[in-house]
Design brief:
Helix content is 24%, strand content 19%. The chain has two domains: 354 residues, Alkaline Phosphatase, subunit A (3-Layer(aba) Sandwich), CATH 3.40.720.10; 82 residues, Arylsulfatase, C-terminal domain, CATH 3.30.1120. It is built from eleven helices and 16 strands. It is an alpha/beta fold and 459 residues long.
Length: 459
């Protein structure tokens, strides 16, 4: 490390990128910068996220299952305000309290009203969207304009001040928002704080691959994969990640900066009209839950000289683990809340090469209705509910006669239900039901926050 004791944290969260999209995960579109980033640290092959964008982002921010925070879905009219209650304590709150400058650029999707915006949840500044990128296409519909509804906007704000509109969010800005705004702002934040020798946390909610997916004009029809919009956007993403990595190096803080790159959802293959997104060998996608292809995505972390390089691991990690893990890595574990359930594990010892285990050997996956869908324990999987295959977005949740069980070590595509192929697996109920029981016991002590609830703490 250099004289700056606390490591900086750059968290790049891409949108709807499948497990098998990057070259290092077997993707056919060249992604040399991302592949190099992966080779310089730890690449996870069993990293798990939540059912949709909002719950995954909530899990990253709070270290809690989104069902606990009332963020497993967006609120409908009459359900209260959308997003996290201000009572929630985020990774930005924690790092701010630890003396970090904090910023968010891009997608928030965890609240769209004053009091629930990034600068209310630990960020010193932000520039981006309150909700999601699909709003860029709203004004292209003639009847939307006829209704007289307000045009979607990109927003900006600073802590202690009201956020204000920065510019329209439309189909003109959609293909260039990463190039012209999000990445330059991230780079400038890195430069500014490195020059000031101020430890910083910057969270980039990169826009792609969320619909409407439109290739940047400089990348359209240029990908060497020659396979459409998806490949073109992926090629640009690789270059943009490279720009951020280069900015860290140019600022002279490479050896004191943690870089995390992960996806929020397994979108590969869920959008067949834009190209060949891939979830690798796993069954399922964004809507085809809770198979591995709907919950397992790419993730990597680099910190030269501190995190071992060239590690590819099958150790399990989850979105909820980032808060306690990053807290442990920067020496701020004492700031992790003790007044609420924290579902994440502190995997900092694994990240720093001091342990061969992350500390996670199980994972509970909840659906967009807040109900449990599956449980993973080591390499076994129990599915309580699922969606039919194509098109899964039109499928309701199916409850099988017996919970389906799979051995992911020999059946990664989840084709051979052990009840059907083996029938010696009833013993597996013991660990699965034990994990469910632990969760249910915690809910009795700390009831889950309801969607839209104005929650202010446990009494």
């Amino acid at each position: 490390m250099n004289d700056q004791v606390k490591p900086n944290v750059v968290f790049i969260l891409v949108d709807n990128v499948g497990w098998g999209d990057f070259g290092v995960y077997g993707g056919t579109t060249p992604t040399p910068r991302i592949d190099k980033l992966a080779s310089e640290g730890i690449r996870f092959n069993d990293y798990n996220v939540e059912a949709q964008c909002t719950p995954t982002r909530s899990a990253i921010m709070t270290g809690r299952h989104p069902v606990r925070s009332g963020t497993y879905k967006l609120s409908w009219p009459g359900e209260g305000m959308s997003g996290m209650a201000p009572w929630e304590y985020t990774i930005a709150d924690l790092l701010s309290e630890a003396g970090y400058a904090t910023a968010l650029y891009g997608k928030w999707h965890l609240g769209n009203t004053e009091g629930r915006l990034p600068t209310d949840q630990g960020f010193d500044e932000w520039w981006g969207i309150k909700d999601s990128w699909d709003e860029a296409g709203y004004t292209a519909w003639p009847l939307y304009q006829e209704l007289g509804l307000p045009a979607p906007m990109i927003w900006e704000g600073r802590k202690g001040e009201q956020s204000t509109p920065a510019m329209p969010l439309d189909l003109d800005v959609r293909p260039i928002v990463d190039e012209k705004y999000l990445v330059p702002k991230t780079v400038e934040f890195i430069k500014k704080n490195a020059a000031a020798k101020k430890p910083f946390f910057v969270y980039l909610g990169y826009s792609q691959m969320h619909p409407p997916m439109i290739a940047n004009p400089n990348y359209a029809n240029t990908s060497t994969a020659r396979s459409g919009v998806y490949a073109d956007c992926l090629a640009e993403m690789d270059d943009r990640v490279g720009q951020i990595v280069d900015a860290v190096k140019a600022a002279g803080i490479e050896d004191n900066t943690i870089i995390v790159l992960s996806s929020d959802n397994a979108g590969g293959g869920a959008l067949p009209h834009v190209g060949p997104g891939s979830n690798g060998p796993w069954r399922g996608n964004f809507f085809n839950t809770p198979f591995e292809g709907s919950m397992r995505v790419s993730a990597m972390i680099r910190w030269p000289g501190a995190i071992p390089a060239g590690v590819v691991t099958a150790q399990t990690l989850a979105a909820v683990d980032w808060l306690p893990t990053l807290a442990g890595m920067v020496g701020a574990s004492e700031l992790v809340p003790r007044d609420r359930p924290i579902d994440g594990v502190d995997a900092s010892a694994f990240m720093l090469g001091k342990s061969d285990k992350t500390g996670r050997d199980s994972y509970l996956f909840f659906g967009p209705d807040g109900e449990l869908m599956s449980v993973k324990w080591k390499y076994y999987k129990m599915i309580l509910r699922y969606t039919e295959d194509l098109p899964a977005i039109q499928s309701g949740f199916v409850t099988p006669q017996f919970p389906m069980m799979y051995d992911l070590s020999s059946d990664p595509h989840e084709d051979m239900n052990l009840w059907w192929t083996n029938l010696t697996n009833a013993w597996m109920f013991s660990p699965f039901l034990g994990l469910i029981g632990e969760y249910e016991k915690s809910v009795k002590e700390y009831p889950n926050i309801k969607v839209g609830e104005e929650f202010d703490g446990y009494k």
